[in-house]
Amino acid sequence: MEPEKKKSSSKTSSSKDKRPKDKDKDESKTHKLSLKGSSRLVAEFFQYSIHTILFQRGVYPAEDFTAVKKYGLNMLVSADDQVKAYIKKIMSQLDKWMVGGKISKLVIVITDKDTGEHVERWQFDQQQQQQENSSSASAATPLFAEKDKPEAEIQAEIAAIFRQITASVTFLPQLTGDCTFNVLVYADADSDVPVEWGDSDAKEIQNGERVQLRGFSTANHRVDTIVSYRLGD
Q1: What is the Cα gyration radius of the chain?
Q2: How many domains does the chain have?
Q3: At 136, is the secondary structure helix, strand, or coil?
Q4: What is the value of pTM for the model shown?
């Protein structure tokens, strides 16, 4: 499995992190996120999303996963060395692109090994607040959280998404046969791309169904989730 990069024509401006070195005790109670902290939180959410989808959709055997505590939930992450190395390679680059404001979406595609048909597509749309337009934009369309939104509230929103991913087995068709997966990252065309990454088609689901799931927001980012799947025969 090789990381794949899908270029996007849209551009996202980045903002310099202006996180204060010291905070008063009463301010720290809300644990406000800087731009860099928000970027890392979103990237971490993407990482756990990959593991959770691989487990919940049975792409790999249940015995290949180990339990960890995250977002107040018992999360399952892959213990397979190959899978861990693949995800680590993706995340090391994703962290850089996130801080630079280069990412518009991350997609996890599950493919039938025998037929090569894409059977499921999990899309996480990511928007980053444009600092210079933040005041006017927030008044018109409140996509982003207030500046003083507590991190605990953000973590609760993320936990709700993972509960919904877990519950998705009630409406998603059961995957049959051996499956594999790919991760697509939609990045700006001017992004610095490692040599081992390559362009890819969108790997859309042909004649599939789409379901909008929950999202979450920080003062700097908004993430929305959509799952597309092939209808059963």
Answers
A1: 18
A2: 1
A3: helix
A4: 0.79
